[in-house]
Amino acid sequence: MNSATSTFHADTSGTAPKQTEYIPFLKLNDGNEIPMLGYGLGTARSKRGKADKLDEDIINATVTAIKSGYYHLDCAESYGNEAELGAAIARSGVHRSKLFITTKTSCRPGETVETAFTRSLAKLGVDYVDLYLIHSPFWAQTPTDLQQKWAEMEAIQASGRARSVGVSNYLRAHLEATLQTPGAAAPPAVNQIEYHPYLQHDPDGLLAYHREKGIAVQAYSPLTAVTKAAPGPVDPVYERLAGKYGVTPGEVALRWCLDQGVVAITTSSSEERLKGWMQRLPLFKLTPREVEGIAERGREKHFRGFWGKEFAEDDRR
After folding, report:
1. 194-219 burial string, b = 16+ CB within 10 Å, else e?
2. DSSP designation for 224
3. Quick check: is 70 catalytic?
């Protein structure tokens, strides 16, 4: 969703490339690159309210994802599973330099970003992350609150311990306030939002605003239209395109994001599905007309899967 174009890092020498070489990358506004397909330890892998003991199921599922070629790994302190991601990284045998690790701060009352970030690094067992996000804006009472935290985020980036910094679940008003931070070096590199055909954020012009400001969009729950929001008006479009390209409706849903320059995060626990996406997503591309056709049908239905209470007054944004 920014001015940069995504590219496939593929080996064209005639030797069959490894799966990870097929993942498209998007250049961020700070010059770093982010893999456009990632594996998320989101609410499906949450340990909220559970004991501190490591959850072997979460670790094993994440190791499976890494070994299936998912080197973009996304977690958050609020999910309580940063230690599991750290353990999975250690067990995977994949060198840290090949991974793109994201975590998020909840901006707990009375706590600095520095304190939260230091704690996250310790749980992950790494000395830097590739992307650090403010998980949501809902803790803030005023625009000044948002600006203060953003200044702290930029200090983390300046220290070299987070290569890129960004936000999550921000609406246009939150981004506009953040961009007014005194002395801010740059806009957030990323805004991670729920994004799928039934939640396109059109009334607020959110995605167009991202393009204007050079902020990349990450989509969580990109498969919503084929999972929790099904059945719906995009079903026949997905089915037709799946037949045309010899793929699944889920792969069409992911390709719809990628072909708009939107990074897609999945939380699937199926090894077969994860490997299938890695193999087939690079093999087809939707036409601009097909991308818009899905968007048009998607606007016929509204569905938000997360943060419904917080977004009650701005539900379609």
Report:
1. bbbbbbebeeeebbebbeebbbbbbb
2. G
3. no
Give the whole-angstrom CA distance, residue 274 versus residue 62.
11
Q: Render pLDDT for 107-135 as a digit per residue (tens, 0 to 9).
A: 999 999 999 999 999 999 999 999 999 99
Distance CA(184)–CA(38), nearest Å, equals 28
Q: Which amino acid is at 189?
A: A
What gap in Å lies between CA 172 and CA 53, rounded to an integer?
Answer: 39
Question: What helix, strand, coil percent values describe the chain, rounded to 5?
Answer: 40, 15, 45
**Residue 151 near residue 112 (C-beta atoms within 8 A):** no
79 catalytic, yes or no?
yes
Helix, strand, or coil (residue 96) = helix
Write down the catalytic residue from 22, 70, 71, 79.
79
Mode of pairing for the β-strands spanning 263-266 and 216-220: parallel
* Residue among 22, 70, 72, 135 flagged as catalytic: 135
User: Does residue 184 contact residue 151 with C-beta atoms inside 8 Å?
Assistant: yes
Which H or E element spans position 24?
A: strand 24-27
Retrieve residue 302's tokens.
């509204």
State whether residue 111 is helix, strand or coil. coil
> DSSP alpha helices (H): ranges in the chain?
56-67, 82-92, 113-124, 143-158, 172-178, 206-213, 235-245, 249-258, 271-280, 288-298
Per residue in 44-77, pLDDT (tens digit) is: 555 555 557 899 999 999 999 999 999 999 999 9
**Complete domains list, the chain, with CATH:** 21-224+263-268 (3.20.20.100)
